[in-house]
Amino acid sequence: IEQLLEDHKIFISLIEPKIVKWTPKSTLGKEFLLHTDFIQGYRPYLTNFNTANLSLEILISKYTPLSLLITGFELALSKTSGYKVADILIMPVQRIPRYIML
Question: Strand, helix or coil at 1?
Answer without folding.
Answer: coil
